[in-house]
Amino acid sequence: MLKRIWIAVVVIAPTLVLLGCNSSSSEPSASSAFQGDWTRACFLEEEGLYVVDNVTISGSSLLSSIFRYTDANCTNPSIPAELKFFANIEFPGGSTTTPLGEAPHINFTPTGSENDGIFTVAEQAQVIYSIGLVSDGKLYDRLDDDEFDGSTIEKRSTEINESFFWVRQ
Q1: Cα separation of 27 and 32, whole Å?
Q2: Which residues contact 154 (CB under 8 A, 6 or more apart)?
Q3: What is d(CA 146, CA 48) in angstroms, rounded to the nearest whole number?
Q4: H or E stretch at 6
Q5: Residue 47: its pLDDT value, please?
Q6: Is 12 left (phi over 0), alpha (psi -120 to 50) or beta?
Q7: Under a CB-based contact definition with an 8 Å cutoff, are residues 92 and 74 in contact?
Q8: Domain range for residue 152?
C-alpha cells in the first residue's frame, strides 16, 4: 500500500509545476501559477480506501499530504490515516505536446516521507523524469505506463492523464 502511494506521489508531484526562472538566479523554479495549495477531493483508490490528496508547492519544494479513509464520505480515518511525501522539483526545459496543451518537462526527486508523524529520509532518491500540465484551473498528472515510467530521460512520460487532476484551493 505504501509503495503504491509513493508511486502516486512520484506521478503526482511532477504535475504540479511549470518551467519558470527565479529572477534572483539562473536556477529554474516553480512558476507562480503553480505555487500554493491544490486538492483532489475524496476518491476511491485501487486498494479500496478513499483518499483526499492535498499538495502544496513552495519554490522548488513539494509536499503531498494524503489522508486515507474507510468510507466514501471521507469521515472515518484509516490506519495509518495521514501520509506525507516531500520532494524537490526542477525544470530542465522542453515540453511535450498533449491534447490539453504543452506539458513542461519536470524532474522530481523524492526527499522523504512521514507516516502518521514518523519521518523517513528517502533512500537512494532517484530522479523521476516526467511531464505535467495546468489547464482550465486544473492540475493534470502524467499518464503512468510501463513503457514510459519516468526512470530515465528516454522513458519520460509523453501523455497526460485527463481523468486525474487537482483543483486550486
Answers
A1: 15
A2: none
A3: 23
A4: helix 2-15
A5: 83
A6: alpha
A7: no
A8: 2-168
How far is residue 129's CA from residue 32's CA, in Å, rounded to a whole number?
A: 21
- Helix intervals (H) in 16-148: none
What residues contact residue 105 under an 8 Å CB cut-off, 6+ apart? 19, 91, 92, 93, 94, 95, 96, 129, 130, 131, 156
101 torsion bin: left (phi>0), alpha (psi -120 to 50), beta (else): left
pLDDT score, position 154: 94
Assigned C-alpha cell, 139:
492540475
Question: Which backbone phi and psi does 63 adopt, to 5 degrees?
Answer: -125, 125
- Position 163, amino acid: S
Q: Phi/psi at 140 (nearest 5 deg)?
A: -105, 150
Region of residue 74 (phi > 0: left; psi between -120 and 50: alpha; otherwise: beta):
left
Residues paired with residue 102 on neighbouring β-strands, in sequence order = 97
pLDDT in tens, 111-127: 999 998 899 998 877 89
Q: How far apart are the first and last CA of the chain?
A: 27
Q: What is the number of structural domains in the chain?
A: 1
- C-alpha 148/C-alpha 130 separation (Å) is 9
Q: Using pLDDT thresholds of 50, 70 and 90, give the confidence band for residue 32.
A: low
37-70 pLDDT, tens digit per residue, is: 999 999 999 889 999 999 998 888 999 999 999 9
